[in-house]
Design goal:
The structure holds 2 protein chains of 2 kinds. Chain A is mainly beta. Chain A contains 1 helix and 11 strands. Chain A has a single domain, classed as Porin (Beta Barrel), CATH 2.40.160. In chain A, strand 2 and strand 3 form a beta hairpin. The longest helix of chain A is centred in the N-terminal third of the chain and has 16 residues. Chain A is elongated. By secondary structure, chain B is of the alpha/beta class. Chain B has a single domain, classed as 3-Layer(aba) Sandwich (Rossmann fold), CATH 3.40.50.1820. Chain B is 45% helix and 15% strand. Chain B contains 14 helices and 9 strands. In chain B, strands 1, 2, 3, 4, 5, 6, 7, 8 and 9 form a 9-stranded mixed sheet that branches. In chain B, strand 8, helix 12 and strand 9 form a beta-alpha-beta unit. Chain B is globular and about 60 Å long. Chain B starts with a helix and ends with a helix. Classes of the chains: A mainly beta, B alpha/beta. The interface between A and B is large, with 41 and 50 residues.
């Protein structure tokens, strides 16, 4: 696991342990726009980082949210992966402003071999740097807990899992799983 | 369990992941050919004059299971082993089209790997070692005289030089014999009668549904492992979570290639004599998917002397797994005496 991934993970875990909050129950106080960062693990243990931004489309108990994710993860010795994933989210807020959500999205996954690639051409092997683009629809679920900080902004740790397809993986739909542990911060 | 404990467990799991042993050496690359990136892992004594290219089974299997289980560690101490995952199989990635899932294409891909070994290492001798479907691939490669001229030795292990009608009959009869045995002893009688009934009216396994169901029946009959306990240790959770093998892709690709690749008809038995390089035939006595009768037929066709033929008494389809030490000895002895 890269040091940057470890740092992100340590930061997120630290947030869970040290934040001090005050109670907040007003739905209209939940974030309009937030940004976040998280540990992303394809199959849990192929580590990576997710950066995301969310925009609330309404502020009701049953909420719609749009999110865009930028994900990078590495399966050591196999592949490096870069994933852009816009999603639409149905979120159900509780009285204490925690939430459960389900998300649907479709994105673009770029996959490269995690070792040098050589192509045979006219009697010689030439090094290649390109990878492969894949269409990647996704379905996810998440639980998040909103904490209202002293300044009124929300800090929201969340844990989520998703299934996403990779197509064409060779000539088939390959179903993968990913998990993330994230924290987002209200900027509006 | 409260939230803090869950997080602590996650931290431990990911920390373990970060402590994994560095598994890769420098000689690990991917070779791109016709929209496929195929991993090639060269291990062992790279200073040796002999490089052995391993052809995995399937079709749609992977050589990485064999690597993780160190099946060829004694051989690697003496020679270089070249492991690669075939197109659309195991750890191969890319955009390979299903139309390229043909024996001819796999032979072409293998020749690219041979050229890579020649270009990078320039060994004096290259040996092919094919297991199961790898036996089909290796045989097809070596039946081409131009390609054969690049190879110094051929080792077939429970190989598919014959995937045709007689192979089906031998394998079907293996299952039927096991079924009769169980029925006569009154053990799981209903289930084994159903299995027997499945073969009524089926004269070939050149059909996706038939080969998949037959394979399940062979598994049930114990035709893949001499000792059923051996199946348990083949893939561990640590390999799934922390190795460089993509087990999600491996399982999915295996299923996909089996369905898409039309191979269950090739029979090269009558042409095996054309392979005029040193050959070693190794087989598990209890093999149920490619029964040992196929080995005896190949021995006759190749006019092999006894020293080039061995039947492992406590193995089924994979003697390199079930009798690893003896298997390594047989291969090393063959290369020492007839290749080096």
């Amino acid at each position: 696991m890269r040091i940057s991934t470890k740092l992100v993970l340590a930061f997120i875990l630290a947030v869970f342990f040290v934040i001090k909050t005050k109670a907040q129950t007003e739905l209209n106080s939940i974030p309009q726009i937030s940004i976040g960062i998280g540990y992303f693990g394809e199959l849990l243990t192929h580590p990576g980082i997710v950066l995301f931004s969310e925009i609330a489309l309404n502020k009701t108990k049953n909420q719609l949210v749009a999110r865009i994710n930028f994900i990078g993860y590495r399966h050591k010795g196999h592949t490096r992966n870069y994933f852009v994933l816009p999603e639409i989210i149905y979120r159900r807020n509780t009285k204490k402003l925690n939430y459960w959500e389900a998300s649907l999205g479709t994105g673009l996954l770029y996959q490269l071999a995690d070792s040098p690639v050589y192509k045979y051409r006219q009697g010689a092997f030439i090094k290649k740097k390109s990878g492969w683009f894949h269409f990647a629809p996704s379905f996810g679920i998440r639980y998040g807990k909103n904490f209202s900080l002293d300044n009124g902004d929300f800090l929201t740790p969340s844990i989520g899992g998703r299934m996403f397809y990779q197509y064409p993986f060779n000539d088939m739909w390959l179903l993968r799983t990913g998990f993330d542990l994230s924290v987002s911060y209200q900027i509006k | 369990m409260n939230m803090h404990k869950i997080l602590l467990h996650l931290l431990i799991i990911t920390t373990i992941g970060s402590c994994e042993k560095e598994p890769l050496e420098d000689d690990y690359v991917f070779i791109r050919h016709k929209e496929a990136d195929m991993p090639v892992w060269v291990r062992g004594n790279l200073k040796s004059d002999v490089f052995i290219i391993f052809l995995h089974g399937g079709p749609g299997g992977s050589s990485f299971i064999d690597i993780h289980n160190n099946f060829f560690s004694d051989i690697e101490n003496r020679y270089a082993m070249v492991y690669y995952d075939q197109r659309a199989s195991g750890n191969s990635i890319g955009h390979s089209d299903d139309a390229l899932l043909t024996l001819d294409q796999f032979v072409e891909d293998l020749d690219i790997v041979v050229k890579y070994v020649q270009a990078v290492y320039n060994p004096l001798k290259i040996v092919l070692l094919g297991h199961s479907w790898g036996g089909t691939l290796g045989t097809a490669y070596l039946l081409n005289p131009n390609l054969r001229s690049k190879i110094s030795g051929w080792i077939e292990v429970d190989g598919g030089h014959n995937l045709g009608q007689t192979a089906y009959q031998y394998s079907r009869d293996y299952v039927l014999n096991v079924a009769d045995n169980h029925i006569s002893r009154g053990k799981d009688t209903k289930e084994w009668k159903q299995i027997k009934g499945y073969y009524q009216g089926k004269s070939s396994w050149r059909n996706t549904d038939v080969i998949i169901q037959h394979s399940k029946n062979v598994t049930k009959a114990g035709g893949y492992f001499y000792d059923d306990a051996n199946r348990e240790g083949l893939v561990g959770l640590d390999q799934i979570l922390f190795s460089e093998t993509d087990f999600i892709a491996l399982l999915a690709q295996n299923k996909h290639v089996i369905k898409k690749m039309d191979v269950w008809h090739y029979d090269f038995t009558s042409r095996l004599g054309e392979i005029d390089i040193p050959k070693l035939l190794l087989w598990g006595k209890a093999d149920g998917i490619l029964p040992v009768e196929l080995a005896y037929e190949a021995k006759v066709s190749m006019e092999l002397a006894d020293e080039f033929f061995h039947v492992f008494q406590k193995s089924a389809h994979s003697p390199h797994y079930e009798e690893t030490e003896l298997f390594n000895q047989k291969v090393i002895s063959f290369i020492e005496n007839y290749i080096e």
